[in-house]
Structures are given as structure tokens and as C-alpha cells.
Amino acid sequence: MTHVITAPCMAEKAGECVDVCPVDCILEGEDQFYIDPDLCIDCGACTAVCPVDAIFYEDDLLPEDMEFVEKAKQFFMEG
């Protein structure tokens, strides 16, 4: 499992999460930031600094946010 960035990031794209990630697994996409599910170590540092509370542990996502898991996987497959 991993952390996932959801819809609130799309309006904000603040980027504090990138600065605190100890494994550099967060990259900026065209519309939001994405967490690489293969590199994330689930430390949670990103969740504490997100100004719009857009980052959640995958198991805690609401059903309507599950699309962001696939969106992140697709982003890193294309990258």
C-alpha cells in the first residue's frame, strides 16, 4: 500500500510534500502531484505538510477517490 494524492491537490499544487519526502517519490504532473506507488515508504511525512489535506493512505481512501490510485499508477507508467 502507499499514500495517494487526491482531488484537492488539483486546485492547489502547493508542493510542500515534495520537499519533505525522504525518498523523492513525489513528482509534479500537469494537473497535480503524484506519489510513485513503487517508491513510497509510507512514512506519512507528506500528509502532515499538505495545506489542503489531499494525501491519504490508500486503505483510507473514500470510494470516490479510488480513481487517484489508478491515475498515479498511469502517470508513472507513462513517465
From TrEMBL:
Keywords: 4Fe-4S, Electron transport, Iron, Iron-sulfur, Metal-binding, Transport
Top-level taxon in the UniProt lineage: Bacteria
Cofactor section: [4Fe-4S] cluster; [3Fe-4S] cluster
A UniProt-annotated Pfam family: Fer4
Sequence ranges assigned to domain 4Fe-4S ferredoxin-type in this UniProt record: 31-60
Gene Ontology molecular function, alphabetical: 4 iron, 4 sulfur cluster binding; electron transfer activity; metal ion binding
Family matches, as InterPro entries: 4Fe4S_Fe-S-bd, 4Fe4S_Fe_S_CS, 7Fe_ferredoxin, RnfB_subfamily
Signal peptide annotation: none
PANTHER family, per database record: FERREDOXIN, OXIDOREDUCTASE
Function recorded in the entry: Ferredoxins are iron-sulfur proteins that transfer electrons in a wide variety of metabolic reactions.
Identification of the protein by name: Ferredoxin
Natural source organism: Edaphobacillus lindanitolerans
